[in-house]
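Box S1 | Example of a co-folding query
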Amino acid sequence: MNLRKAIEKRRSIRAFSQKEIPEKILRFCIDQARFAPSAMNKQPLEYIIVNDRKREQIFNNIVFGGQVNNKEKKPTAYIIVLSNSNINQNPDYDVGLAVQNIVLTAFSQKMGTCILGSINQKAIRSLLNIPFNFEIKLVIALGYPAEKSITQEVESSFEYYRKNNILVVPKRKLKNIIHFNSYEE
Ligand SMILES: Cc1cc2nc3c(=O)[nH]c(=O)nc-3n(C[C@H](O)[C@H](O)[C@H](O)COP(=O)(O)O)c2cc1C
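Box S1 (continued) | Returned holo structure for flavin mononucleotide
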């Protein structure tokens, strides 16, 4: 898959078919995360893949946005993104870059993903025995998509919505975010 297609067509997916994801695809996603840029090349990030029965408890400790009713279409795996605070206490740029590698890789393998920041940190830490020197930065839900999502260029509202059962995700127009040589026109 070419890069342009991956960047433009990847959408957050919140409803999944119940077909299992092969472990080698999950490993491949983490392997691609390794190649992301890392400040001072400190590489503080580690990942827990959850694809056993614990995924039920992960589902109960995350919040999917928007009018989404996916109780019958739950993710079949999760990647928990951890950062070792003994290595870097400001890892958020590293996290964003690595997570983008993961979601684009997953998309190239026909997977849907949703990055989740609304998570119950305490419950997930306890469930997965995560040591206290690791911060839980994000959770990525994965599975084969059972919904369609498209983008739409907008000027005003950025709230995503459903139309004819398709998720529509407003994106700002290029002309509204680009500046050459000065902020003022
Ligand atoms: C840091 C971060 C946290 C997010 N947290 C959530 C979340 O808790 N729940 C959710 O349903 N979506 C979450 N999202 C997904 C966004 O809602 C989604 O990226 C946005 O609506 C744009 O849609 P797109 O990914 O299809 O382009 C998160 C995305 C990012 C980057």
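The first strand starts at residue 45 and ends at 50. The mean pLDDT is 93.
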